[in-house]
Every structure is written in structure tokens, then in C-alpha cells.
């Protein structure tokens, strides 16, 4: 029970990697808060944990700073603490190049992927500082290192998430707060499922996945295992690191 007595908040928890993180944390003793833009999706994640689950479902738009403050305030009011924050919510840009990226698409992708991580971290930091301990885990991407994993907005946003992670670690490590990033490769989730269909197949992605040492898509549970490690005291000496969970995509 590596997270016994702790409170963990996961954004984008209605499906995919976020849902898997909630399940993993709950199994290890945490009280879990599933945050999703859809209340019904967040509630389904909590309901599936069982009738006596230690959990709460909250709806929020992570790109809205007021929503971030509201969610964190409600968590602290109800549970008295906040130990783990997983900024996992994200959106794709369908490999849109810069010339084809509209201002609306740019603002949405940057707002959710980077703005969400910033707003929720900023909201959670005062409580974590007061506790003298906390773990922030940001879902970045292999697109934080290389081009081709997304379009212009997505790649820029994930580079930004990694930079934010490092700065959080630098500024708040002295307060007992650890900030680290997970950089998934091709993970089979609801958000990426269309890439596995003939209609949505992307030759670049197919070739990249086939060329990895793993030779396959990853699962949400494989990301959740890394999140559990970073949330636990097993990672007590890890600050500002980026962990690729990508089947070896970025090895070359």
C-alpha cells in the first residue's frame, strides 16, 4: 500500500491513462479524485472502483484557471490535504503543420496540455508547501524531445510541459515537492484509437511503432505503473526527471 493515507488528483481521468492512474493509486491505498471535462466520465471511473471506494469525481476544464482553483479548493476542503497531482489531461492536434494550425487550434492545444499543467500545479502548490511534501507528475510525451509525434501545437505544448516540470522541481524541491514527467510513446487509448483504424491510420505512426524495440503500442496500465512509482516514496530522490515509456521510440 504505497499510497496509504494519501490524496491523489488525476486530470483527464475519465478514460485512458488517467483512468488507469486512478485505478493504480486506489489499489495502493490512496483516496483518489478523478477530474475530467465530463462529469459522467469522471464519475464512471470512480464508480468502477466499487461501492466503498475512497474517491471523488469532479468536472473541470483544465485550461480554465478558475476551475483549477475550484477543484483544488474542494479537494483540500473535503480531505484536508493533497499529496499527488497528476496533470494528465491532454488533446491531440492530428499532426497539423504550422501553416495549417489555426489560432483556435493552437490556443486549445496549448491551453489544455500546457496551461492545464500550470494552472493545476499553481493551485496545488500552496497546500503541498504547507504539508512540506507533495508529488507533481506531468504527462508529457516523446514529443517533448523529438518532432513527428504530433503537429506544431502538440509538439510545442509537450516541450513546454517538460520545461515547466523542470522549473517546478528547481523552485519547489526545497519545500519537499517533487516534480517529474512521464513521456509516453504510442499508447492505445480512446484519444489515439482512431489512429488504429483504416480511416485514421497515419503511416508515420505505423512505421515508427513497428520500428521500436517493443514493436507494439503501449497500454494505459504501463503508464500508470510509472505514475505510481513517481507518486510513491520509492522515487524520493528523483526531481525534475523525464521518464520515457515508449517501447524505445526515441532510442535512435
Automatic annotation (TrEMBL):
Gene3D superfamilies: NAD(P)-binding Rossmann-like Domain (3.40.50.720). The keyword Oxidoreductase applies. GO terms for molecular function: glucose 1-dehydrogenase [NAD(P)+] activity. Its EC number is 1.1.1.47. It comes from the Bacteria. Keywords: Oxidoreductase. It is an enzyme of class 1 (oxidoreductase). Belongs to the short-chain dehydrogenases/reductases (SDR) family. This is Glucose 1-dehydrogenase. It comes from Rhodococcus globerulus.
Amino acid at each position: 500500500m504505497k499510497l496509504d493515507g494519501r490524496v491523489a488528483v488525476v486530470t483527464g481521468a475519465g478514460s485512458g491513462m488517467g483512468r488507469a492512474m486512478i485505478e493504480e493509486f486506489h489499489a495502493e491505498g490512496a483516496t483518489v479524485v478523478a477530474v475530467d471535462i465530463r462529469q459522467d466520465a469522471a464519475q464512471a471511473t470512480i464508480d468502477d472502483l466499487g461501492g466503498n471506494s475512497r474517491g471523488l469525481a469532479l468536472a473541470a476544464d483544465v485550461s480554465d484557471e478558475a476551475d483549477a482553483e475550484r477543484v483544488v479548493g474542494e479537494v483540500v476542503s473535503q480531505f484536508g490535504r493533497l499529496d499527488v497531482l497528476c496533470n494528465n489531461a491532454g488533446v491531440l492536434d492530428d499532426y497539423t503543420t504550422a501553416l495549417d494550425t489555426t489560432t483556435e487550434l493552437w490556443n486549445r492545444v496549448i491551453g489544455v496540455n500546457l496551461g492545464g499543467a500550470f494552472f493545476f500545479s499553481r493551485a496545488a502548490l500552496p497546500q503541498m508547501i504547507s504539508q512540506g511534501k507533495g508529488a507533481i507528475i506531468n504527462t508529457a510525451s516523446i514529443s517533448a524531445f523529438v518532432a513527428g509525434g504530433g503537429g506544431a501545437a502538440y509538439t510545442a505544448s509537450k516541450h513546454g510541459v517538460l520545461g515547466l516540470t523542470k522549473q517546478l522541481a528547481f523552485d519547489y524541491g526545497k519545500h519537499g515537492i517533487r516534480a517529474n514527467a512521464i513521456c509516453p510513446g504510442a499508447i492505445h487509448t480512446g484519444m489515439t484509437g482512431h489512429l488504429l483504424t483504416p480511416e485514421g491510420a497515419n503511416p508515420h505512426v505505423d512505421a515508427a511503432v513497428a520500428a521500436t524495440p517493443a514493436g507494439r503500442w503501449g497500454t494505459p496500465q504501463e503508464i500508470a505503473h510509472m505514475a505510481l512509482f513517481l507518486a510513491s516514496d520509492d522515487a524520493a530522490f528523483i526531481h525534475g526527471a523525464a521518464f520515457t515509456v515508449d517501447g524505445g521510440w526515441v532510442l535512435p
